[in-house]
Structure formats: C-alpha cells, structure tokens
Design goal:
The two termini are about 25 Å apart. Helix 1 packs parallel to helix 6 and helix 2 packs parallel to helix 4. Strands 1-7-6-5-4-8-10-9 form an 8-stranded mixed beta sheet, with helices on both faces. A two-stranded antiparallel sheet has the order 2-3. The chain is built from 6 helices and 10 strands, in the order E-H-E-E-E-E-E-E-H-E-H-H-H-E-E-H. It has a single domain, classed as 3-Layer(aba) Sandwich (L-fuculose-1-phosphate Aldolase). Strand 6 and strand 7 form a beta hairpin. With about 200 residues, it is α+β, with helices and mostly antiparallel strands.
C-alpha cells in the first residue's frame, strides 16, 4: 500500500500570490526531466501526486519546495511552489507561504537542510524497481518509519551524519514504498545523481 501525498504535520500557511523568485526557474529546469523519467508524477488510479523537489535560499531565508498535490502539473510555475520559512520537528510543524501549501515531505527536507549546511537541494522520488535494487546497498531510513513524520525527519537528520550517505548523496526510504532521497550542494547535483542512477538501472534491466 502506498502511503503518499497527505500532509501529516501542523501547517501554518499564509496564502499569498505565486512565488516569484529566480529559484523557481531552476526548480522547473530539473523537475521536467525528473517527471519525464517518471520519478515525479501522479498516481492516476489513487488520485494523488508523488515526489517533490526543493532548493535552499541563500542567507538562511528558508527553502522553496514543490506544493502538495502538484505531481500532475506538467509545466509548473510559481503558483505550484511554496516558500518554507520555519519549522519545528518536535512540534511537527511547518510555516510556509505561497499559492499552495508545501509538500507533505517538507519536514524531511527541512531536517536535511538544518543538519547539513553543505546541502542546498533535495529531491524525493518514487521508483519501485530502483527502490528494490538499492535496499541493502545504500544508506536507508528505518523501515518502521513512515513518510512525512517527525520520525522520518529525524531519520534523515541521522543519515546526514552517515559517511556513506554524505558520499553517495542518495538514501532509500525503507518504510516509504518506492521512495528515495537524493541531496547535493546544488540542484543539478541532486537531480543528476538520481537521474543517472535511474538510467543505469533501466539499461541494466
């Protein structure tokens, strides 16, 4: 069973106009090939989106992340992203603004950014084949931990201290069916890591 797409944290959302920052163009530049590869998208039978992408803003101003339930949007714009301005893992709370609420995985992205100042981009994708192949081969979250929870945020915080994860930049979300996380110092790094791994896996299969 896929447990995906539902916000599980308390959200303090200020509804504003579209996010009009240069980072949106960069997010779209990498979101499109991720969508084309099926790594971000929409489960039509379930009516829910999957996968998300974010980039840290400079000078500690938060991060921009794809909005909840936007996986069906082929060509995204500023109205499909949210700016996360604050968070509290212990209180299971996110503060954000924009035309749409932040992704259901926002707390996990926030924990990664807080844990490692060298990480400036996070990509969360779904790929069943790749997920199965990499379980046991790459760093992984506790299989008992569900997505979008404080426990998952703390698991990624833990992995940010794992030398293997710091080297590979990719982790398996063992308790989140098909879920993988890629990180990097830039959005290009994070997205390319997972795109190349997916291409290699497909060619091998």
């Amino acid at each position: 069973m896929i447990d995906e797409g539902y916000i599980k944290f308390d959200i303090d959302w200020t509804q504003t106009g579209p996010i009009c920052l240069a980072e949106v163009d960069e997010l779209n530049r990498w979101r499109e090939p991720l969508m084309a590869a099926g790594l971000i998208g929409h489960y039509d039978d379930l009516g829910i989106g999957y996968g998300n992408i974010s980039v840290r803003l400079a000078h500690g101003r938060g991060f921009i992340i794809s909005g909840t339930q936007t996986g069906h949007i082929v060509h995204a714009s500023g109205e499909h992203y949210a700016l996360v301005t604050g968070f509290d893992i212990g209180a299971n709370r996110i503060e954000c603004q924009g035309s749409v609420k932040a992704s259901s995985e926002s707390l996990t992205h926030a924990a990664i950014y807080a844990a490692d100042p060298g990480i400036n981009a996070v990509v969360h994708v779904h790929q069943p084949r790749l997920w199965s192949e990499l379980r046991g081969a790459l760093p992984a979250t506790d299989p008992r931990v569900a997505y979008g929870t404080p426990a998952m945020a703390l698991e990624l915080e833990r992995l940010c201290r794992d030398p293997e994860f710091r080297k590979s930049g990719i982790a398996v979300m063992a308790g989140h069916e098909s879920g993988l996380i890629a990180v990097g110092p830039t959005l290009a790094d994070a997205a390319t890591r997972i795109l190349e791994l997916n291409a290699e896996s497909g060619a091998a299969g």
